[in-house]
Design brief:
Elements (H helix, E strand, L loop, with lengths): L1 E5 L3 E8 L11 E8 L1 H11 L4 E10 L1 H10 L4 E9 L1 E8 L4 E5 L9 H10 L11 E3 L16 E4 L20 H15 L3 H15 L14 H11 L6 H7 L4 E2 L7 H5 L4 E2 L12 H6 L9
Parallel strand pairs: 1-4, 2-6, 4-5
Antiparallel strand pairs: 2-3, 6-7, 8-9, 10-11
Helix pairs in contact: 4-5, 4-6
Length: about 300
């Protein structure tokens, strides 16, 4: 099987005009949109030729579902690292009068390694933690094109390899795991304030199954909410739980990093308090129209 790499996928819009008139209104005709990017283009062609192929890359959040739907129609497996931002759109404009093609390409998204780096930092606190096997070196040779901080590091999360071991899209959806039940029981016991020894035991059961270093187990003094949340970050990485853990416990969500957070500083989004109005999603207008007693969440 051949795997192509496309770090900057796109929507490729192709259109034509009878005759291009710079500085004037031009009406497009024969407009079509395809998924694009060099690695994607190669994968699509190989698939149409009957060659087993897959593609890996990064994908912005806005336009992601449309992109995935379109590439599924090409029957090309696409494994991606979710990224903030938008899937770019490129325009290829054909001038029928001169038979020339003019291309307009949008800039791509910037790569954010902070979440994976934070996770690796947590694991590095204990070299014997078996969860180190969840990360692998990049599928890109020598991590070419990745930020300097990611060079020569394990930057690929391989927690969900799929039923066949090479396609994470073939996973059954995990609703809850036994280890999460243990972690929930530990947190509930701590907050309840009774049966602390039993609650502490639940947390140590998880720790003892992940590392042979007995010094990592908690004692009465180290059995705290911070430690439970830290173990939840390690155990449930990639499962979408940390955001809600912090909200439930009234803790601020702080994104740590360097170069890739400059735009967040300007938008006041680097640190979000648990009381921030942006956390509550807006109620759909159709629901408010159906029930006038519903009040829109404040923004």
């Amino acid at each position: 099987m051949i795997t192509t790499v496309c770090m900057n996928p796109s929507f490729d819009k192709t259109a034509s005009v009878k005759a291009l008139k710079p500085g004037e209104l031009n009406r497009l005709c024969d407009v079509r949109v395809d998924v694009g990017g060099k690695g994607v283009n190669v994968a699509v062609v190989l698939k149409r030729l009957g060659v087993p192929v897959g593609c890996v890359g990064c994908l912005g959040e806005r336009g992601r579902e449309s992109f995935l739907k379109m590439i599924r129609q090409e029957d090309v497996p696409f494994d991606y690292l979710p990224m903030p931002g938008e899937v770019r759109t490129n325009l290829k404009l054909v001038d029928e009068s001169t038979r020339t093609v003019t291309e307009f390409n949008e800039p791509g998204i910037s790569m954010n390694q902070s979440q994976l780096e934070d996770f690796l930092n947590l694991l590095n606190e204990d070299s014997k933690d078996v969860r180190h096997c969840l990360t692998k070196e990049s599928v890109i040779e020598n991590n070419t094109g990745l930020p300097a901080a990611a060079m020569h590091e394990k930057v690929y999360l391989a927690k969900f390899p799929g039923k066949t071991g090479d396609d994470p899209k073939t996973n059954n959806i995990c609703i809850i795991r036994l280890s999460e039940v243990y972690l929930n029981a530990a947190k509930a016991g701590l907050k309840k304030g009774t049966d602390l020894e039993e609650a502490q035991g639940y947390l140590n059961d998880i720790i003892s199954r992940r590392t042979t270093d007995t010094s990592q187990q908690v004692s009465t003094e180290t059995f705290t909410l911070d430690r439970i949340l830290k173990e939840r970050r390690k155990e449930l990485v990639g499962e979408g739980e940390v955001f809600y853990d912090y909200l439930r416990n009234g803790l601020a969500i702080e994104r740590k990093g360097s170069w890739h957070l400059e735009t967040l500083k300007a938008s006041n989004a680097q640190k979000i308090e648990a009381t921030d109005l942006r956390i509550a999603l807006p109620i759909p207008q159709s629901e408010i129209d159906a029930n006038p007693n519903i009040q829109q969440n404040p923004r």
